[in-house]
């Protein structure tokens, strides 16, 4: 049985909704176990035990969240040269554009020599005031469907050995 590890961080619930949608759809695929884990609870051994990855983070100050960066900091060297070629994808819950957060994760994945198998999914909430930025988020059905499609596709590709 193959394993898809979904690592996420959330502050206002948006990224959690995206990760849960991806995980639910991924679990519908046969031949793959899905592990949905918070970034601050994910250890290097979790990374090493997985066959593919979905990384999900909010955009904070035009970057990935600090706890997502902490996950990569704690896991990077332990996994270096031990996860080469494994597939990954990224989801960003953004207030503005999310591109820099996506670039940051892609750059880390390049260092790990992971294989990008889908374009990153960026959901923009357009939260631009302190009140809206800090408010709980509700991700719309269309965006959750995009996240589910990414999760299902990634899981199916891992299970079938396509990636």
From TrEMBL:
Ranges where the Flavodoxin-like domain occurs: 4-163
Assigned keywords, A-Z: Flavoprotein, FMN
KW Isomerase (keyword) present: no
PROSITE patterns: FLAVODOXIN_LIKE
InterPro entries: Flavodoxin/NO_synth, Flavoprotein-like_sf, FMN_Rdtase-like_dom
The keyword Magnesium is assigned to this record: no
Gene3D superfamilies (UniProt xref): 3.40.50.360
SUPFAM superfamilies, per the entry: Flavoproteins
Record's protein name: Flavodoxin-like domain-containing protein
């Amino acid at each position: 049985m193959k394993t898809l590890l979904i690592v996420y961080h959330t502050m206002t619930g948006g990224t959690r909704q995206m990760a849960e949608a991806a995980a639910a759809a991924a679990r519908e695929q046969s031949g793959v176990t899905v592990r949905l884990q918070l970034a601050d609870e994910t250890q290097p051994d979790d990374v090493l035990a997985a066959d593919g990855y979905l990384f999900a983070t909010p955009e904070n100050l035009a970057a990935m969240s600090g706890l997502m960066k902490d996950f990569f900091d704690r896991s990077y060297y332990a996994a270096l040269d031990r996860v080469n070629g494994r597939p990954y994808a990224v989801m960003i819950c953004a207030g503005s554009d999310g591109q820099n957060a996506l670039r940051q994760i892609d750059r880390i994945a390049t260092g790990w020599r992971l294989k990008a198998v889908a374009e990153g999914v960026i959901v923009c909430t357009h939260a631009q005031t302190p009140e809206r930025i800090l408010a709980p988020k509700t991700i719309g059905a269309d965006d959750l469907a995009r996240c589910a499609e990414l999760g299902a596709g990634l899981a199916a590709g891992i299970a079938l050995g396509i990636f």
